[in-house]
């Protein structure tokens, strides 16, 4: 079964590029940029990756990304992830990034986007992997800075496929960003939002996302199983869900996404599986995450193929391109 998962063609839509920053690269970039990390070595740093909830994870994740400064840094980060994904037979990936965190530190939007895009072009040539880029609004920062990030990115519109909404969900419903999503849509971008499992008011957030914002995808979203009405609506819309069993497995013990994969599949939802923040989750990339999900939910080979078919179908690419991949 593990071999089947390893060789199966795959696609990934829920991976935060800053969450693919491996300890070794963090040390290398810190040295290159003259930044001192408060750890003796990579092992000590990795040992500090202890989380008990989403905020305690996010604090470590945001602190870690401070070593990303130059265009070359963003290039190296993206190329390393794309090489790893391609080595696992990921044919296509759409990657999140959190520009507000970089703008805040004085790193220009151009530096971030052009570095990542240079890596995307190289990876397409070197490894045959295609990719898209999704600008995430950091929902617990001032919404005004999210609008500034969008405005700064729009001159680079052709480098993006969509916008997302991530970070700490508590007290920050998707509806708070309605104007941001409307502006992104007007520019032809797709929309997805994180509605993480077992956060506060998750069902209300899912309803806002589907009914009010008419999102194109939902990230996580497993609490939808509590509402047959919303399940029916999601199916009617053909919405896909990006479920991250590894992240939830590590942050909340046995709770979270790993618990909902079987139920979501049985409910007939378009489930896709993704790695979220692999460098912070024991370096579990898509193959390892699928192996974890397979074991926990007793997924059959047919179901695994269905999950990856769902993923290919959910790509924010033209139909002609998708037909070639299938
Ligand atoms: C994130 Cl809400 C959330 N979950 C996992 N990784 C993240 N990176 C930024 N926001
Ligand atoms: Zn995420």
Automatic annotation (TrEMBL):
Zn(2+) binds at residues 14, 16, 194, 276. InterPro entries: A_deaminase_dom, ADE, Ado/ade_deaminase, Metal_Hydrolase. It catalyses: adenine + H2O + H(+) = hypoxanthine + NH4(+). Its cofactor is Zn(2+). One of its GO terms (cellular component) is cytosol. Binds 1 zinc ion per subunit. It is an enzyme of class 3 (hydrolase). Residues 9-326 form the Adenosine deaminase domain. One of its GO terms (molecular function) is adenine deaminase activity. Substrate binds at residue 277. Keywords: Hydrolase, Metal-binding, Nucleotide metabolism, Zinc. The record marks 220 as: Important for catalytic activity. GO terms for biological process: adenine catabolic process; hypoxanthine salvage; nucleotide metabolic process. Transmembrane segments: none annotated. Its EC number is 3.5.4.2. Belongs to the metallo-dependent hydrolases superfamily. Adenosine and AMP deaminases family. Adenine deaminase type 2 subfamily. Catalyzes the hydrolytic deamination of adenine to hypoxanthine. Plays an important role in the purine salvage pathway and in nitrogen catabolism. NCBIfam families: aden_deam. This is Adenine deaminase. It comes from Novosphingobium olei.
